[in-house]
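Task card 7
Instruction: Convert sequence to structure tokens.
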Amino acid sequence: MKNYIMAWRNLWRNKRRTLITVASIFFGVLMSTVMSSMQEGSYSNMIDNVVKFYSGYIQIHEEEYWENKTLYYSFEANEELYTKIESVEGITSYTPRLESFALASSEDITQPVLVMGVDPEKENNLTGLKKRVVEGEYFGENHNSILLASKLAENLGVEINDSIALLGQGYYGNTAAALFVVRGILNFPNPELNKRYAYLDLKDAQHYYSCEDKLTSLNIMVNDYSMVQPVIEELELKLDKPYSAMSWDEMQPELVQMVESDRAGGIIMKAILFMIIGFGILGTIMMMISERRKELGLMVAVGMQKYKLATILFFETVYMGIVGVISGIIASIPIIIYFLHNPAPITGDAGQIMIDMGIEPLLMFAASPGVFLQQVLIVFLITLFISIYPLISVSKLNVIKYLRD
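Output:
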């Protein structure tokens, strides 16, 4: 205990030196924590934009559907399937969909469209589709209603209450043709989605494609990303062929690759930052040993054992690391909390790039425990590694030489 107290008191014998070292750790931890929070928040935002709007965290479909994506591989959902899904812990919501392609025509203009047959209430609960309506209204009681993405409606030259014809291929290979009334115009952050998405009520879509009671997928949301793998494993145990469950990262490999590439770049930046911190601590420790060499020699000469002296120097290094880390974490918390509730908008070319990718142009932050614990662990390891230097210095201490200097 005396060694611990002596180490703490020694730190403040030269306050300036100690504060410089603690400040380097403080600013390094502060910058690294805020950067990590921003990175993780941005990744979560990107993933949420994809899973909440389109795929869900998990998708159930017929085994061959994902490779072919045709109505031939649609399936008939029954109460038994719904019961199995609802019995899995961690699933918060799910929505049925029937997806296919068609040609949309208005007068002499024709455009290819991706037709999404959805359950209006469940789809809105999962993706918030209703809030995307910028003109007209969401699905109501009217049958043969269609919601068009804004750019698609503009290209077709149609407005609210105009009629368009859809021409496609039905489940049996027959021609699917029908007139639908435009009830609402949708606007999405992604320009590509605005060019080709059209939504029908699920019953209307099933009738149009001659797919009565059939679906191409069931899209599932879970409490948290960490629940995806356990939920899939449980679903695979409960689902019989021909059903198959896929996670969002299997369905969106390009998004996973983009996140991993960006994370790798962030690791390099943080590695440079922590190298600067490490060399700052090391420089201070070397200076401290050099300035105190006569003192250290005298302490050994009067009978202090070298291992006790090494222990004191070790804890001096550790204490500086602890003070720097704690102060850096405390300073980062209000910054992260502020931006957590007030995401910063991204403007200019960077914002436009995010919009083109279908991502809201916002600088999001995350406050998960891992963001903070990572910094604590890294600085602790750096401090432990650097503390080897005073141990080696004391073990090689030449008492006579230090006392003569």
